[in-house]
Design a protein that fits this description.
The chain has 472 residues and is α/β, with parallel strands linked by helices. It has 19 helices and 19 strands. The termini are close together. About 1% of the residues have low confidence.
Length: 472
């Protein structure tokens, strides 16, 4: 079977990897830009012994998705940099709220006593969940904010859940679907009548064993077993996360997969014999297309033949994110940890700050990543913010929140347009309808990637695997 993959980001490269394993050649990946990796981008400052990450920087080795990624890491023989659960970056996570830096509880003891920004002990939120019955039908959806407020109270929704959603997808928890992004918690409520009840039953009654993920023909990946044994909280790769897409491209090249850069698909035409792709210099017939393109980029390729499918894809909104990487000489942080998030209720232009140099050794430098924009990009930055304007805002809040008064020695400003899909209420059903359309019309087209199956690195890799496995 002659197959084409649209997009050379992590999801597209993963689709190529799994297509190669399942079908072999011929296989071509088409990427519109001059590089692979999508939003994953590492800038290494060899002369200064630190790196900047524009996109994601760590991966969590959790459950089937985490095991699946580690299986790929194992085959690619990549040098990993694990962070154990005992590491300060795994234990210390903070909020900036009510004018102060607040440490989030990292042990059961933290549920008792009143810790800012909360005005009552957190165990009372758990009691609220235990005393609140199931109030939503299993076929309904609601926002994560509404779900959290209903189960745990408004304070938890404002100061715990909302900033977490900012960190996951730069989105507004009042719009993001609980059935899509927190499906496990939603299902526990539906099955057991409460989130806490569901967690306890799942642990003690259902005998769920994450040590045996059911995706692998033989034993679980060795790296996954190692991660469980050594209690990894997260990990990265020596040299930065962009090493992963580069290694995948090298692997694909070595196995005669054709990766074409700066060659965007312009139209897709479906017929009984397959698909005809209109490219920069040629029309290419293939038997099947796997698209890892963002929904808004795929939509116009389908519009001439399938306008209603185009409209459904365009229902998935995206947000712009601003990333500012900053480096200072010496250790400038008063409190170590993974970083901090800012609840939207604070009405500040930043989403959070990641303490990169706490997560990984940066040779005596303090390296921070300031995240801004997302759902609130237009509100804070308008249509054409200057890099100086953005950098000044980032430095202002680093000074105010972290009390770093020095000027940074090195910085980078990146505006990432329409980089993260927003899983608004009804998203799970929306994706079902899109994939049902493909099935009903028997289109030789598979869709994988962040728009359909989740925003994390594990999510997009597993999305590619499952969509390739589902090809007839």
């Amino acid at each position: 079977m002659k197959t084409a993959v649209l997009g050379g980001g992590l999801s597209g490269l993963s689709a190529g990897y799994y297509l190669l394993r399942r079908f072999g050649n011929p296989l071509t990946i088409y990427e519109a830009s001059p590089r692979v990796g999508g939003w994953i981008r590492t800038e290494a400052r060899r002369d200064r012994d630190f790196i900047f990450e524009t996109g994601p920087r760590t991966i969590r080795p959790v459950g089937i998705p985490g095991a699946n990624t580690l299986e790929m890491m194992e085959e690619l023989q990549l040098p990993l940099k694990p962070i154990p659960r005992s590491h300060v970056a795994a234990r210390n996570r903070m909020l900036y709220a009510k004018g102060q830096l607040c440490m989030l509880p990292n042990s059961p003891r933290g549920l008792f006593g009143v810790k800012p920004p909360f005005t009552q002990p957190l165990y009372k939120a758990l009691l609220h969940d235990l005393s609140t019955g199931r109030t939503l039908a299993s076929n309904e959806d609601e926002s994560i904010y509404s779900f959290a407020e209903r189960r745990f109270g408004k304070e938890i929704a404002d100061y715990a859940i909302s900033p977490m959603i900012c960190g996951i997808c730069a989105g507004d928890a009042k719009q993001i679907s609980v059935r899509f992004l927190m499906e496990g918690l939603f299902e526990k409520e539906q099955k057991y009548g409460g989130v806490l009840k569901g967690i306890l039953y799942a642990r003690f009654k259902d005998n769920v064993d994450e040590k045996k993920p059911g995706l692998f023909a033989q034993d679980q990946p060795k790296l996954y077993a190692q991660a469980l044994q050594e209690k990894w909280a997260m990990y990265s790769i020596e040299g930065g996360l962009e090493v992963l897409p580069r290694a995948m491209r090298k692997y694909l090249d070595q196995h005669n997969v054709n990766v074409q850069l700066s060659n965007a698909c312009q139209t897709l035409t479906f017929s009984k014999s397959g698909v005809r792709m209109s490219l920069r210099n040629a029309d290419v017939p293939v038997d099947h297309v796997v698209s890892s393109l963002p929904a808004y980029k795929l939509a116009p390729l389908l519009k001439p033949q399938h306008p209603s499918l185009c409209e459904q894809l365009l229902e998935i909104p995206y947000v712009n994110v601003v990333v500012v990487n900053i480096q200072y000489n010496g250790n400038q942080l008063k409190q170590d940890g993974f970083g901090l998030l800012v609840p939207p209720v604070e009405k500040l232009p930043i989403l959070g700050v990641i303490f990169d140099s706490c997560c990984f050794d940066m040779n005596g430098n303090t390296v921070l990543t300031v995240m801004m924009g997302g759902h609130w990009f237009d509100q804070w930055f308008g249509h054409q913010p200057s890099q100086k304007q953005i950098l000044d805002i980032a430095k202002k809040y680093v000074r105010e929140i972290l009390d770093i008064q020095e000027e940074p020695k090195f910085s980078r400003v990146h505006i990432l347009p329409k980089c993260i899909p927003q899983y608004t209420v009804g998203h799970k059903e929306r994706v079902k309808r899109i994939r049902k359309y493909l099935k009903d019309y028997k289109l030789p087209l598979s869709l994988c990637g962040a728009a359909f199956d989740g925003v994390g690195i594990n999510d997009v890799i597993l999305s590619a695997r499952r969509q390739v496995d589902a090809i007839p």
